[in-house]
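Can anyone check this?
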Amino acid sequence: LTLLPMETYVVGFKIFDAKALQTEDGLPCDPFLIVQCCGLEFQTKTQENRQQLASFNEDCTWPNLELHPKQFESAYIEFKVYARNWFTRNYLIGKASLQLSFVNKRSNCLYARKWLCLRRDDDPAITGMLNVTVFALRPGQQAPSATLQEQEQTNELGAGGAADEEDLLSKAVLKNTIEAPAGKAHHVEINIHRLVDLPMTATMTGECHPSPYVTVEFAGVVLKTLVTENVSSATLNTRLMIPVMTPLYEDTIILKLWNSFTFSPDELMAQGLISFSELRNNSLPPRWFNLYGWNLLEVPDLNVFALAGVTPEANYFRGRVLVSGRVQPLEEDEALAPASVGMARPVPEPNVNYVCLFSDVYMAIGVKGRTCEVEVSFGAACGSTDKVAGTYDAGGSSPAAVEETDGPHQEEETVHSFVFNQVQGRIAPMLVMAPDETLSQPYVMINVYSTGWMSGRRRVGYCLRKLEEFPMYEPGNPSKPRFFPLTPLPGQPAVPASVLITIERSHTEDIVRHTRKLVKPMMYILRSYCFMARNIEERGSGENRYGMRVACAGRSIQTPALPGPRPKWMTHLDLQVTLYSDSAKEPPVIEPIQLQLYNINSGQELGAATCIYTHMRQKDNLGNWEPYVLSPQWVKIKGGGFGSKNVGEFLVGFEILLFKYRDERALQPQAMWPQGSDTYDKKKHFAKLRKATLHFSLLGLRDLMPLSRFDSVGVGSVDLVKPLVEVEVQWGDTGTKTAENQKLRFKYTDVVEGGDKRIKSDRLNNWKSKVGKSANILASNFEFLQVQKLKVEIPDKMILQPYVIIRVYEEPSRLHSSVRDMMGYTNTLVGESRRSLADSLPVCWLDGVNINKSLAEQKAIVDRAFRTARGASALHEEFEQLTDEALKDMKRHYREDNAEAGSQGGLSAALKAQMEGGPKEYINSTALPVPLRFPRKRPLPQLARLINAQVEQTFSPRHGEKVVAIGQTQAKTVQGKLEDTDNNSFHNDLYYKSCPLLLDHDLVESADSRDWNYLPDVQGFVKCAFKLVDGWDTHDVDDELDDDDPDLQAALPARIQTHAPNAPLISAAQLALAVAGPPGSAALAAAAAISAEDRTRRVFRSYNVTDELDAFAFDEKKLRKRFKDSENMPSRVRIRLYLVKAVCIYGKGAGDFPDPYVEFHLGPNIAVSFKSQVKIGTNEPDFYMLEERDVVLPDDGKLEVRVMDKANAFEFGGDALIGSTILDLEDRWHSRSWRKVNARQEIPRENRPLSTAEVPGKNRGSIEMWVEMIESQRAADLKASPLVKPPELEIEIRIVVWDCIKVKLVKEDYVNVQVQATLDCNAYNGEHKKVQDTDIHYMSKDGIAIFNWRMVYPRIKMPIKTCSLKMDLVHYELMGVTHIGSLNLDLKKYVERVATNMDAVEVGPDLLKFSNADTEDPDNPEEIGSARVQLYVMTQGEAGSKLAGLGRDEPNDNPPLITPAEGRDWGTYMAGFGFSMPDFGMWKKLIPLFVVLLVFLVAIVGMKNLGLV
């Protein structure tokens, strides 16, 4: 049964601005938005009196969007902008939509700060622009940070010209009309030509023909064809045209076929999807689309499946529709036409041909019922067999005909079989017209019906196949029948059933049908190679034992039951089956092979996998048996209530041979168990068992949960005090106990061996900690710092996936072990962790690796070998057998290998060399002997550091450049956890990551992204590192040498390491030889001995173990020094926690937003809450907090940051946890890469996911943060990194109006020009008024006015919701002003740009045109004036150093403004009142003299009156 599970998706959005809204009457309106997505709806607040710009700044997140994966591909979010009307219906201004899958495929699953074009359904014209941010998350994906949501994404199509446009102030002018954005106009045309073969539908009055119509949805437009009443076929010839403008943000064109009802909702009959991008590249010629759905009589209630989270596979033919389409690009001078529905030109039907199907049914197996009939349909045409009665047998043969084979017991299952003779099973020929194109052809459907004693006819199973899978009809040569497995109908038990049938196709029915091919039962051996199972989902108390059952042709055989979680059967099952064939030389008709996983404890079948395998072992033309290469595959096991859940995986292979040849030597089972090096034969054995040494480094145990004191009643708990760690290597569970000499055992002691407890570095700590899933429980932690090694033998095949098991026990008491054994005390298992060794196999085990070359020399070969091995180990949905071509290639390579081995097997080495081209000369043309031809002389340059020789130094590094570079470097942001990152942002060297301890759990892969801190099954964590080295290590030179010897360290500090990234380190033994020798020849000889082993050392160990880890992790002294030495671990560490922002995916109910605040916990005792700084009503809180605490590592090394929701007065139960994240500070402190960036204060910002133990694995949001650590004694010397909250940043805007031109003359011959500016900004807190005017330019007769006037708006606090400036051009008079025109400037982007990069912005001067919507004719606009304006935007701090006054007041700088002389003198001013000075002609030259005389006379008269004269 093919079922699609429902999944939980997350959709969030933020609405910023809408601009240029085209209302019904062209006037400002009260806009609001309605957002709809998959049945959910959100409405914004209503803005008042807006048209050119409306700022909303509202956001919402829907955390629980239940959809099927296919639904998500076509789902979209739609934004509708309405204008509010009080007494009539709200007017739809326009709408825009985004496809969720399109958003999900973008970087960070985010569509940030993009402008959408608003359109109405019936008009292609743009009716407004909407600025939004949208993110869509699949299960397991992380929410983008609040910072990413606020930042505008770069255009994937190219951002050329964007910076140039920002330098033009005219681009910021808001207009009532909309300029079409850059893009290409297209018309999408979908033609619906015909509907045929529509099925009958059930109504209240009985069955009748449907009343169909078709809808097409795309780019927010929905078009509908006319309804045709009560027809099974209809000719529509309807063209549905949708205008679009690229770039588009959705790609799926949705076609829906509906059945119209009068008194009930219309029924959706079928749905189809067309890709716009593919349609644009290649037009769709007329093509038949076949519609499949469900028969409501068989599946009466689909809601049952919807509630269970699954969707059944469509299994009922619902008709065909003939569709064509194209995307027509328009020329630049062509305008988009409105969306329309019109008549399409009739088109000829696609090329069709007669297809006649000849079907013969042999038998139906596994069908329960009294009678059975088989129906074959092709589209609407169908034919069926006669009804036959059933028989009940085992494998289709009598028990006497079955011979028993040695080995596991084979069971004969009671099989319901229905055998059809040629008369009963022959279906009448079906002649239909079918398209030649394969995609337009319907499926050939095989349906099986049965009737019971008390029930009527019902369909029990079906099978869908393409027409091209069936052979052409050849008269006189009937084709061999095939078994087709049946899929049970939804809701019916998944019983394996199949039909043996032959279907042949021809182009005519006018032929004489031949007798069907006679097949007879033959005995075969179906050999199943059952390796193991993994990832079994079932969990239960006690030890579960699992087995595999192989069933085919009515017989089954099973493996022995072995304990989990990874039962390793490693056995072949030879199942004797009766199959049908026409010849012993031809492969038989194979029935589907059913693999079942069962639990022997409960007796239940957990799941099954159906496999098809058809290759049979045969002889070639020379009478030799064809080769067989065992190639097992991992296949999925499906189970659960509807058979759609993955419940495990099988590793299995198959082989088929005739029963009579079972004793042939060449047909004996291939050895599955890996063989040792002395017995391994590549042609006979599947894998090689190779010797290796496991080096295991145990750092410690963390967060061990208390044990239940009384397991039987579950009362009380006890803390761990004596943990014991056992390590072993396995590659499957067999139930046998591992020998003690094949285990490593680590016991906890409170002091290192031979150490002093009074010395801190010798003490091994144990402490308590709080766990993330239960803050009330204190867990135990222990330091081990021990290293051991183990000799192991493991297979070299990655597909077998060997692994290391780390088990943690608690010893029962401190009594002597003999006393404990006598009293019956045993160790209590706390948990175990299984870590895969597949990626840790030694490099030299891979195919094609040369052990005589270094890893750097063959890195490409190693990477390719790893990819090949991983590909062979990949998981398959179903068993994929080799194709005929691949099988032929395999046989050819096998013969070539055999021929080569046979021809040269007994030849001498000299003869082989001669055949290869003769013996190789000792000295070649370069006059170099063989030992000197290879590049192993490279260590000699390093020798200068070993020998007492002077090495010349180059110029000293330029530290100034480095310091400047550090000062300019900005910290990067990591999307996710830093510990899971390994890229340019951070080189991950967190070697001792916490591995979860679980019970009855399979491997934990390193790529598993689950946060184990919140999962209920986790019993604790183990910190360890391990490596595999080829061969058994019987002698370790490093253990006998003291690397801490001062002379040794002086000779080579920290062990010489080459600059090559993959070059190995020189061992201490080799170093000692070099140092001990005298200067000169002895030292040179020692250095020459160093070369060979060092260059190839990495080839013999695990590929994923770096040189740095290998240098310290597997030496106890160095391990303890790294983690316990006072130089590496100070007594106290200062923790600096930086909390920036969070995104909360949390549904509080009733559309309310949470009231988030943050708190953190450090270790068991430090808890800090910021409840007093709660953020009210938001799901994107910004914290901008810096907290410092002194801690002791590793005791306080666990940091948990929680985002809480503050409960209000009406909520009970206290504050709720939105989500939290846990950081391991100990790992970071011991990471050299992290310490390096920490010293430079360049720690990447982490956008960490939030999780909870209540709903583990569910996305609860993310928090943007980072952590710095420094020794407490040095904390005063290193200041904390700046963490500035953007709202504290203030911006100043300065507008300089230089002049105006072409101003409309309001009076007959002049105009008094003035410019008024009004700032609209919610965050303006300056001392100047929002409305500022220029001075007046009087009596301008040519429309030119000079101002040189400055307007200043200081103290605009960030962030802002809106920032626009309205400029009015007026004619001034004493009795009032006359409005000439106005314009609006959108300054928000300039202000945000300065706030982001702190760089001042200077735009212009640019000429801005005024307009007047009341008097302007849209068809013939009138020039009413333009102003030359310059914009300055800067931070308030920069503005304080560049002071400037209003107008032309002091300080008149930045820039200095000169008072204009034009339009400012008294004559010009008086002329404004109608007065004018007389013209004195030549006498006006004497006016100054007359003025002086007049002043003199006035002075004389004044002095006389004062008695001075």
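Reply from J.R.: I decoded it. The mean pLDDT is 81.
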